[in-house]
Specification:
- 86% of the residues lie in helices and 0% in strands.
- It contains ten helices and no strands.
- The chain has one domain.
- The protein starts with a helix and ends with a helix.
- By secondary structure, it is mostly helical.
Length: 221
């Protein structure tokens, strides 16, 4: 009885993640006009929703036993997570370009391409992060965060409209949001990394031992 129960549990979890992915994707699509009305909602709400829908769909696939062969095949060309992380950085960098945002608003074809590419980038992100060691994760996180910060400061500092569909005020708000994300995302990553916490904990322990040994050395002298 345990095997059917476990199979049912995995199926239930897969359905839950699939429902979440569908909800995010449909919300981003059905409310696209409202979300794309301002630059801040376009970049800071809709785009993360599309990435999150891809990540949720990935979690759905991990709970399906029949997808094991597909996951093994994906791992064969995404060794150490390099390919998936590179895809994620390139895709997100492209959709931070003002001309790309204008094209997505003006053209339905470009809009569909935006949905597809961001969904795929989010789909590969969890598996790529799991395959990458902490050094590779730090490298890509640093590039991604610095990219968001630079683009955000550019949006705030420029005195001209970078997007034809958005006003300068929208541009400034989006820039502030990107800078905030550039700080929040690395902070959340560090908070969730056990290895990082242990590294700093070990450093504090070593400092404590060194401080405790100094009085003893002074007494010996």
């Amino acid at each position: 009885m345990k095997q059917p129960t476990r199979h049912l549990s995995e199926t239930t979890r897969a359905c839950g993640w699939a429902a979440l992915a569908a909800l995010l994707l449909l919300t981003a699509f059905l409310f696209r006009q409202h979300l794309e009305l301002t630059m801040a909602r376009h970049m800071l709400v809709q785009i993360p929703m599309l990435l999150a829908s891809g990540a949720a769909w990935h979690r759905c696939l991990t709970h399906l036993p029949r997808m094991k062969a597909v996951r093994c095949y994906a791992a064969s060309w995404d060794e150490y997570g390099l390919a998936g992380l590179a895809i994620f950085v390139l895709v997100t960098a492209y959709w931070m370009i003002p001309r790309a945002l204008d094209s997505a608003v003006a053209s339905g074809t470009v809009e569909l391409a935006k949905f597809a590419t961001l969904f795929i980038a989010g789909l590969h992100l969890p598996a790529s992060l799991s395959r990458a060691n902490i050094i590779l994760q730090l490298f890509f996180l640093g590039n991604f965060a610095s990219m968001m910060a630079i683009v955000g400061m550019l949006y705030q500092d420029t005195s001209t409209r970078l997007c034809n569909f958005y006003l300068i005020d929208d541009q400034v708000v989006a820039g502030v949001g990107l800078v905030v994300l550039a700080i929040v995302v690395p902070a959340l990553w560090c908070a969730s990394q056990k290895q990082v916490r242990e590294f700093f904990k070990d450093g504090q322990t070593d400092d404590g031992k060194l401080a405790a040994s100094r009085p003893a050395e002074a007494n010996i002298r």
